[in-house]
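Example (one chain per record):
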Amino acid sequence: MAKRYITDKISAKTGFIGITHEGDATFIDSVKIGTAHNVSGDNNLASGYNNTVSGNYSVAFGANNSITGNRSGGLGANNAVAGGQVWATGDGNNVGINILNVGGNIVTAGFNNTVKSGNSCVMGTGNNLTNTQELQTVNTNFVLGSGNDINDVSEGIAIGFNNTINNNESVILGRANTINGSPAYAVGKNNSLSSFHDYAFGLNNIIGNSANNAMALGHSNSIDGPTSYAIGSSNNLNSESDYAFGFNNTVGANANLAMAIGQNNNLAGSQSYAFGRSLQDGGEDNTVIIGRFNATPTATGRIVFGTGFSNTGRKNAIEIQAGTNTQSGLLFKALQASNSYADDAAAAAGGVELGELYRNGNIVQIRMV
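Predicted structure:
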């Protein structure tokens, strides 16, 4: 094998001063340009000041870069690069793990990023991709932004600022979102997802540990039941297969298969539905409520038409339940509580409108004139 030595001449072929094979000054194994470099291995290049390059086919451009491994490189200052096919551009990046088949194939651009996840790409500032146990399975992540954390996971995507991903196959777009389930997807700000197959779009939505296959769209919705969906603002779903559309609707822990559409509705019974404002089922199951400020239904399985105006003035115009051969199933609570009129003239004087029902004692009549 030809002896290597350091030439003090400039190669006619490359124009670099370097380490050459004896008798062939045009073949350069490793090259140092600048001062205070520490270069070892084959076919490495250091340019600038105080760079360290080891392994093979690696390069460093700038100052105080440390490149360990094969086919890797650093451009800038204070970058630490380890492993195979790992590249860092910028300042203060700590990239790769110098273990075979672990923490390699990484591209990082920016400042003060820490990337220990293999097969990953990071662009930005202060991002952190951990691989605490240095596992080969922690890989294939992508980050664009600042202050994002992807902790010991694979197939995570974070685009934005200060987002956190703690489980596999999750995607975040926005700011200060946190995902603990897998897979899960968050778009917006301050959303928190803690179960599996969840989706949050908006601001300050929370999907809890028990809410698998859930979705929140809007602002400050909270879901803690599986297969539930909240669209709007400040809806709170706590049981299975619930749906809320609107504002400040609440579905209780035992109200499975319930639906609230509107504002300030409260359902505690299973398979109950509310359409309107400030409606409540009182815990009765299989109830349908339409209107506003209804009185609590007196039995389960009723259709209620609420006509109240406040929490202290709740009223029902009609309640309907399944009829039998002994009862009709039609309850006119408002009619029962109304004044009695002897005839149409008296009803008209009392404010009853044409075509409206009124009672004459316990006889129901229609005002015709």
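Caption: The chain has four domains: 1-112, 118-234, 250-334, 338-368.
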